[in-house]
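Sequence in, structure out.
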Amino acid sequence: MAVNGPSHLPGGDERSFAKDAREKRVASTPGKTAVWGVDHTEESKISRYDVRRRLARGKMKNSSAAPSRRENPGTRANARSYPSALNKKPQVLSSQTVYAGKVFGIRRDEVIEPSGVRTTREMITHPGSTVVLPVLPDRRILLIRQYRHAARQYLWELVAGRIDKGETPREAAKRELREETGYRAKRLKIFMEFFPTPGFLEEKMYLLLAEGLTPGKAEPEDDEKIIARPYTRKQVEQMIRKGKLQDAKTIAGVLYYLRFLAR
């Protein structure tokens, strides 16, 4: 049984499609139905939806070949205003401390953002952290292993810790390196700064390269059980490739060091 073409198609498309169908229509036979010139067996089926979709796809291709000269009136205005929005600062209308803990806090701000959006943002407050990449005289990288309850597992990481009130990132790095590994560094240089989770966390991390290391006695805090172990460049690369390093700051710091700083 032959089926008529879609009635909603524009006149030109419907007529041309019907003409093609008449030219390609096959005779009906038992087990077969000639519909739009397509063999309707279990091996070869096409629905009217497929026909409409193919026509629409063809029309879209034709329309994209000849783009409209019409322009959204707001396009140029938005392009002009975007650079100025980058220079604006947010306007905080109200701020409420929801929680204040030992390690972090939670604050709720009602704010008008530089883009003009008025909204409420809930953020985790944090003073910032220092991350240390210790490189031994033989160029091996020192990593530490400790239990992270949030991850429910032991993780290999770079030395890291919170920046205490009144500390600079470099002072915090010296303290954390001594506490967690016992090593002292003659040279500490910030080589990278980033926000690990800027969607809701205010914490900023400072990565420092520690060189000129001399061993000493570690001074871990009471709740820290840490193992320190050096790894060669090749070993660290294999740990990243095989997924044995799962700490984001460590992966970022090590890859940056190997790509841009390692000699």
